[in-house]
C-alpha cells in the first residue's frame, strides 16, 4: 500500500493530505506556539530608506505556514516590498500595493536583487507585482491590473501604527538628525496621517474589508501591529484592530513577536512608568463564509 506521507528525516513527516501548507507535522506544531523570538539580520540600507519595514525572514515563516508553494499572497501596505521578496524566496506568487511611488520603486529594485530559492522550470510562471495605489480601492486596482481578480490565498501586512511616526520620540531622533524619512508622507490617503484614533481604526477597517472581498474562503490574514503609547497613555491599537476587523473576519489568535535584540533606552527613569515595548502582535484572522 502506498504511504500517505513523505519522511523528511529530522524535519518530520509531511502528510500528503495537508490542506494548508508544505510543512511536516513537527514543523506545524512548532509554529503554533503563541510567541516567538525573531532577531533578523541587521537591516542596513533598508532601515535608512523606510521608517518601519518588517524583516523578510519573519514574513517568510508566516507565508510558509499559511500557504503552499505557488499560491498567492497579498500585502496592501507593501512599503519597500519585504512581503514580495519573501514570496520570491519561498516560491509563492505575490501582489503588493503601496500608496507611495518612492517606496514602490525601492520594492521593485529589492525584488530584482532577490533570486528564488528554487528556480526551476516548474516555478518559471511565478509573479511578484508591485501596484502603486490606494488600498481603499484594492478590488479595482486588482481588476485593472489582471482583468479577473486572482484567487488570493493569504494576506500578510503591517499597516501604519496609527500616526505614531508623526509623534516625536527618542527612537525617531536619530532619523531626524540624519535626514532620513521619519514618516511616510503628507498624502491625505496615507492612513498614517490620520490623527483621530477612531477615524484611523475606521479607515484601516475599510481597507481590510477590501481584502476580505478578494480573499478566498478559508484564507488567512495576518496583521502585524502594536499598541501605541501616546500622550502619556496606551492606545490599545492591536486589541482594537482585532475588535474592529471581527465584524467579518474571524479572529483566530495572536502570535507575539519578541524583539530580543532592541537596545533598552532610558524612558521615564526616576520619574514614572514608560515601558520599553519590545514586542509586536501578529494577529491571525480567517475568512469563513458559512454558505460555501
Ligand atoms: C508599516 S509600513 C509597511 C512596511 C512594509 N511591511 C515593509 O517591510 O517595508 C506601512 C506602509 O503603508 C503605506 N500606506 C499608507 N496608507 C496607504 C494606503 N491607503 N494604501 C496603500 N498603502 C498605504 C505607507 O506608505 C507605508 O509604506
Describe what you observe in this structure.
The protein has one domain: Vaccinia Virus protein VP39 (Rossmann fold), CATH 3.40.50.150. The protein has an eight-stranded mixed beta sheet with strand order 3-11-12-8-7-4-5-6, sandwiched between helices. The chain has nine helices and twelve strands. By secondary structure, the protein is of the alpha/beta class. 35% of the residues are buried. The radius of gyration is 19 Å and the shape is globular. Helices cover 30% and strands 22% of the residues. Helix 3 packs across helix 4. It starts with a strand and ends in a 6-residue tail after the last strand. The structure holds S-adenosylmethionine. S-adenosylmethionine (SAM) binds next to strand 5.
The class by helix and strand makeup works out as alpha/beta
Radius of gyration using CA atoms only? 19 Å
The CATH topology annotation reads as Rossmann fold
CATH-defined architecture: 3-Layer(aba) Sandwich
Strand residue content: 15-25%
Highest CATH level, the class: Alpha Beta
The distinct ligands, each listed once, are:
S-adenosylmethionine
**How many angstroms does the end-to-end distance come to?**
34 Å
Mean pLDDT: 91
Q: Provide a count of the helices.
A: 9
Strand order of the largest sheet: 3-11-12-8-7-4-5-6
| Sheet with the most strands, sense and barrel status | 8 strands, mixed
Topology:
Elements: E1 5-7, E2 13-15, H1 25-31, E3 35-37, H2 45-49, H3 56-66, E4 72-75, H4 82-90, E5 93-98, H5 101-112, E6 128-132, H6 138-146, E7 152-157, H7 170-177, H8 197-214, E8 215-225, E9 228-230, E10 233-235, H9 237-245, E11 250-258, E12 279-286
Parallel strand pairs: 3-11, 4-5, 4-7, 5-6, 7-8
Antiparallel strand pairs: 1-2, 8-12, 9-10, 11-12
Helix pairs in contact: 3-4, 8-9
The structure holds S-adenosylmethionine.
Residues 50, 52-54, 77, 79-80, 82, 97-100, 103, 134-136, 158-160, 184, 189-192 line the site of S-adenosylmethionine.
Amino acid at each position: 500500500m502506498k504511504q500517505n506521507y513523505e519522511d523528511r528525516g529530522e524535519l518530520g513527516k509531511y502528510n500528503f493530505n495537508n490542506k494548508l501548507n508544505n510543512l511536516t507535522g513537527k514543523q506545524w506544531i512548532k509554529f503554533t506556539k503563541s510567541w516567538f523570538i525573531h532577531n533578523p539580520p541587521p537591516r542596513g540600507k533598508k532601515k535608512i530608506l523606510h521608517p518601519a519595514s518588517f524583516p523578510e525572514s519573519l514574513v517568510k515563516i508566516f507565508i510558509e505556514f499559511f500557504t503552499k508553494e505557488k499560491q498567492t499572497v497579498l500585502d496592501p501596505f507593501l512599503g519597500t516590498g519585504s512581503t514580495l521578496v519573501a514570496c520570491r524566496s519561498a516560491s509563492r506568487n505575490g501582489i503588493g500595493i503601496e500608496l507611495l511611488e518612492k517606496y514602490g520603486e525601492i520594492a521593485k529594485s529589492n525584488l530584482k536583487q532577490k533570486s528564488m530559492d528554487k528556480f526551476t522550470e516548474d516555478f518559471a510562471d511565478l509573479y511578484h507585482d508591485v501596484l502603486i495605489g490606494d488600498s481603499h480601492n484594492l478590488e479595482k486596482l486588482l481588476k485593472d491590473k489582471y482583468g479577473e481578480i486572482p484567487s488570493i490565498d493569504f494576506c500578510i501586512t503591517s499597516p501604519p501604527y496609527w500616526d505614531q511616526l508623526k509623534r516625536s520620540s527618542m527612537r525617531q531622533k536619530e532619523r531626524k538628525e540624519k535626514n532620513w524619512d521619519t514618516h511616510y508622507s503628507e498624502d491625505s490617503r496615507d492612513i498614517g496621517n490620520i490623527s483621530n484614533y477612531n477615524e484611523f481604526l475606521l479607515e484601516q477597517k475599510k481597507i481590510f474589508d477590501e481584502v476580505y472581498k478578494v480573499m478566498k474562503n478559508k484564507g488567512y490574514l495576518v496583521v502585524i501591529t502594536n499598541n501605541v503609547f501616546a500622550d502619556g497613555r496606551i492606545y490599545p491599537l492591536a486589541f482594537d484592530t482585532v475588535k474592529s476587523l471581527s465584524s467579518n473576519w474571524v479572529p483566530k489568535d495572536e502570535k507575539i513577536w519578541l524583539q530580543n535584540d532592541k537596545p533598552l533606552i532610558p524612558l521615564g527613569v526616576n520619574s514614572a512608568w514608560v515601558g520599553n515595548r519590545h514586542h509586536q502582535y501578529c494577529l491571525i484572522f480567517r475568512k469563513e463564509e458559512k454558505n460555501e
